[in-house]
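Review session, final week

We close the course with one last complete record, chosen because it touches almost every idea we covered. It is PaaI family thioesterase, a protein from Mycolicibacterium peregrinum with 266 residues. Go through it on your own first, then we will talk.
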Amino acid sequence: MHYPLNTPLGRMGVQTLEERPDRCVASIPVGGLLNPLTRVPTIAPLAMLVDHVGGLINHLRRNEDEWTVSSELALELTPNAIDVVTATPEAPVLATARPFGPKGTGSLGLCELTHGDQLIGTATVRSFHIHAPGHLVEWPADSTEGAPPAALEDRMSVQVAETGGSTAVLRQLPDPVINNSIGIVHGGVSAAALELVGSAALGAGGREPWRTASLRVNYLRQFRGGDESRYEARTLRVGRSSGAVDAQAIGDDGAVALVARLTAYR
């Protein structure tokens, strides 16, 4: 399934290839995209892919009067993931999701990420089952022509606010195109932005670049783009070969909406 460019999935280039209760498959382009804070290749869009396909497999398990919202996302990558992606940038990354365990208050989806014939990561998405909201924003159904914006920051509607030292900040601009069906910033966009600021807080210099190994995100409350909405990251530890960063998404009201922990290795 191709999504219109005026939807978050279409803007990020996501395509759904299979959609069944026991198996969902989707893809996203990653090669050639740069972190706007560091201008180096990034795997951040994989968080968007994982949130979509893992959330979808959970969503297909809901009852008729239920909806689902992401509550946790965890992504684990192989040490050579970025090398595999950049070696063949024209090929998208594929994610295959399956349900994991029984349905309860929340459901867990297990994902496998591949690029060509190489496994580059695994991921999980946990979703809460809630009563269906009284109003859902209808995504445009018309098929728009063209391609997503070339720059990742334009796809995500983010803007560099601060970088350097041990901190990094991206502003989340208000843009209905990157909102989900309940009118808040799509969870995959937010998770990808947390990876961007987290990896940027570690810095792009050194004897060799940092490689994101894991990203763990908790969704605490609704997050909307606005004048003061932003993603911030600060390093916890930077060693010779490993680093750890805490990141958060903060809304216009100053409340923390998402938190994340990123680990990376050289």
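Two points worth writing down before the exam:
The mean pLDDT is 93.
The two ends are 37 Å apart (CA to CA).
Good luck, everyone.
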